[in-house]
Design goal:
8 strands; 5-stranded mixed beta sheet; single chain; 3-stranded antiparallel beta sheet; alpha+beta; 7 helices
């Protein structure tokens, strides 16, 4: 039988984010347990066996602290951001060796249970996983401060009119009017300039 906690987790992985790590799940939903990671691992194993979750163990860079935006823009600022400085700051923060990380994502059965009848978008490789784990952390940090924050993930933006895209890709999320983007190693000066050209008519944040 699924508990309220199970349903909260499955709904989050179906509608708010694509993937979360064992540590992220333990910190949000099992923090009151004596051993949060162990308690989370036991329950997640049951949810995988029941067909609600997919799991994988991958080598990823340790999670960055993304509680504060690396760069924020509002249309009132004018001018152009210093793309070279932003690109260097984004690239230079990935300094540590990858570590073994267990990740979880929702299955089609879970998304249907949560009222989303589209096929879930499974993450393809380590670079995309690293990106989506950090988008998940942005959502965790935001909703820890404000559980009612109007977060809309990229996967649920496609049908929304008026959301700008860069290189055919939508922002990672939108919170109210604010566009949210997590910047990875590949966000070089050219990409940042294209992103600014696409997003500059709305407030946006790069983490």
């Amino acid at each position: 039988m699924l508990t309220d906690r199970d349903l909260q987790l499955l709904t989050s992985l179906s509608r708010a984010v694509r993937v979360l790590t064992l540590g992220q799940i333990a910190g949000r939903w099992f923090a009151s347990s004596r051993w949060p990671a162990r308690a989370a691992a036991r329950r997640l194993k049951d949810l995988v066996a029941a067909g609600y979750l997919r799991t994988a163990a991958v080598m990823l860079h340790p999670l960055l602290d993304v509680r504060r935006a690396l760069y924020e823009w509002t249309p009132e600022q004018g001018g152009e951001p210093c793309s070279g400085s932003i690109a260097w700051r984004l690239r230079s923060r990935f300094r540590l060796s990858p570590i073994r990380t267990t990740v979880f994502s929702a299955t089609r059965e879970a998304t249907r249970l949560c009222g989303d009848f589209r096929a879930p978008r499974f993450v393809r490789g380590p670079a995309e996983l690293l990106h989506d784990v950090h988008v998940g952390q942005l959502w965790l940090d935001l909703t820890a401060r404000d559980a009612t924050a109007p977060w809309v993930h990229e996967d649920h933006l496609a049908a929304s009119a008026g959301v700008p895209s860069c290189d055919g890709k939508l922002p990672d999320a939108v919170v109210g009017e604010q566009l949210i983007e997590f910047g990875g190693r590949r966000y070089d000066v050219r990409k940042l300039r294209r992103l600014h050209a696409a997003y500059c008519h709305q407030p946006y944040s790069i983490y």
